[in-house]
């Protein structure tokens, strides 16, 4: 048996402490002032010590109250987010996958029919975002190549799917005047250019830069002849094969591979494990 006060008493205490007012907490919880006061009294009796000091006509947390409030706030925050996740899964079951919009449009979605053929009972729900927004807090799996901004614990949990290779691409007819080459950059993954230059080692100078929030837009800008974009090889395979783009320097492998980051605190479902296995095989098949 757990030695805990009632949930209603803790909820009342957390609301009073957060609002610094019994009246405001009562309005938030749709309870009367007297009902919340009774809950606070029961909680203090359970603790065996006061949690508030009277200051004028109001209440102020004492040391014990601050300690309990910190604990209750974290617990209620976690309970709230976990409950929201349960509701989403109950109302919209399936595997929630987060990835960049460009990866989804240019690689994942065109190949999903093969995954569904292998796992006909699977249901995927995709969240497509920009690199800046990709954090995947609510997703079961996040797919990304650059996890450098993530905590070390997340990077250690990540599952390697395949290698990555980046190279500069441009329209075949792109011939800028000497010293006027334009670099097409991604707003949120600028380090890709730095990594590529460190590996290629042949200098490539640029007069100016155009930036876009999605890799897809960078690719389209290169196709339109606006400059040189740095892109992962798989994402421009069609343009290279059709001659809409050329890769004059080829592609170089990056240390960071394509990774699958499972959500923290919950194991991958059978669907999640199946997706990881399929992604690894499908990505490796298109690596060259």
Automatic annotation (TrEMBL):
Question: What is the superkingdom listed in this entry's lineage?
Answer: Bacteria
Q: Which Gene3D superfamilies match?
A: Periplasmic binding protein-like II, Winged helix-like DNA-binding domain superfamily/Winged helix DNA-binding domain
Cross-referenced PANTHER family, in alphabetical order?
HTH-TYPE TRANSCRIPTIONAL REGULATOR, HTH-TYPE TRANSCRIPTIONAL REGULATOR TRPI
Q: Where is the HTH lysR-type domain?
A: 5-62
Transcription among keywords: yes
Keywords associated with the record: DNA-binding, Transcription, Transcription regulation
The terms under GO molecular function for this entry are: DNA-binding transcription factor activity; sequence-specific DNA binding
Biological process terms from the Gene Ontology for this record are: DNA-templated transcription
Question: What protein family does this chain belong to?
Answer: Belongs to the LysR transcriptional regulatory family.
What is the designated name of this protein? Answer: LysR family transcriptional regulator
């Amino acid at each position: 048996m757990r030695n805990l006060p009632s949930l209603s008493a803790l909820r009342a205490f957390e609301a009073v402490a957060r609002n610094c007012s019994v009246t405001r907490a009562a309005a938030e919880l749709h309870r009367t002032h007297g009902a919340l006061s009774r809950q606070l009294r029961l909680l203090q009796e359970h603790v065996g010590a006061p949690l508030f000091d009277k200051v004028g006509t109001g209440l102020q947390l004492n040391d014990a109250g601050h300690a309990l409030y910190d604990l209750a706030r974290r617990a209620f925050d976690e309970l709230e987010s976990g409950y929201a996740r349960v509701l989403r899964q109950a109302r919209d079951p399936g595997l929630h996958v987060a990835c960049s919009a460009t990866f989804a449009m240019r690689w994942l979605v065109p190949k999903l029919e093969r995954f569904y053929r292998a796992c006909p009972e699977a249901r995927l729900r995709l969240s497509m975002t920009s690199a800046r927004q990709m954090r995947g807090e609510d997703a079961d799996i996040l797919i990304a190549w650059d996890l450098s901004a993530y905590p070390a614990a997340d990077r250690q949990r990540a599952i390697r799917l395949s290698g990555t290779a980046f190279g500069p691409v441009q329209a075949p007819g792109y011939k800028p005047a000497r010293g006027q080459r334009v670099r097409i950059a991604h707003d949120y993954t600028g380090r890709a250019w730095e990594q590529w230059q460190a590996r290629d080692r042949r200098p490539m100078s640029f007069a100016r830069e155009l930036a876009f929030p999605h890799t897809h837009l960078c690719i389209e800008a290169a196709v339109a002849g606006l400059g040189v974009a740095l892109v992962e090889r798989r994402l421009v395979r069609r343009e290279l094969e059709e001659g809409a783009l050329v890769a004059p320097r080829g592609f170089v492998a990056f240390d960071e591979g394509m990774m699958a980051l499972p959500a923290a605190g919950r194991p991958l479902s059978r669907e999640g494990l199946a997706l990881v296995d399929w992604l690894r095989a499908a990505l490796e098949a298109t690596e060259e």
